[in-house]
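[Automated response] Your request has been received and processed.

Submitted sequence:
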Amino acid sequence: MAVYKRSYKIYDGPRTAQGMRFSILTRFSLGALFQSRLFTGFVVLCLFPDLLAVGYIYLVHNATVAQGLLSMHLNEFARIDNNRAFTFLGWQAALGFIIVAASAPGMMARDFANQSLQLYFSRPLSRVEYMLGKLAVLALLLSFFTWIPGLLLFGLQASLEGNGWGWKNFYLIGSILVSGWLWIAVVSLFAVALSVWVRWRIAATTLIVGSIFLLPGFGAAINAVMRTNWGSLLNLSYVMRIIWASLFRLDPNYFGADKLPLWSAWASVLTVCAFSLMIINKRLKAREVENG
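Generated structure:
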């Protein structure tokens, strides 16, 4: 049909509430991510550890089956405590980081490559709402790999164990929630900041993954040259392990997380978040003026 034969009219359908307009970006960004069969398959594959954890909890509460399969006494093997929860969250956090590294660069680079920011910000959508919409995508993805399965497994263990196990270990609910959301905040801001800074999907993905290896290596070099332990603050996974050990009431000596005080780990994490927000605020613009 020719353009002049078209009749245009004002949209009279349902409108999203002003405070929830960022959710539109979240919905369409999630849809774009799951259009990739490779990404969808990897997300489904990452759910298998949850099924293994469910099977493990069921196994240790069926001693006859477990002893028949393993031919062993269920002493240390059957203990489900804060150490097991810490280990499970660590594995899930690692898988979540891979998902963020695979999704954040493409999600942000697509808007820069197609000059979409001008269209977004020409509508009643602020930069804060735009970032909330993008960060909500990563928060939803990471939630299904960190605190949500952690709480479900806690409920399963409490119901099968009985004898007041849930009340005795009730603090684990707070530990799982705080640890999960802290990891979500740090990783999401860090990945989005690098993606906004580089604006090229391949380079941003390489930089995000490489930072996990380069920064700890640089910190180890500082420790060796300066004969100190403060260089370990550059190791994000290490400082997170220090914080998680305190939240799960574990001995930091057991995890090698006793070389730095707890306050320094919190300071390192908050510094990463602050610098990430600074980069996002500086680079996230609909247009830039360059002096040539």
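Summary generated for your ticket: Residues 19-48+80-283 form one domain. The two ends are 45 Å apart (CA to CA).
If you did not submit this request, please reply to this message.
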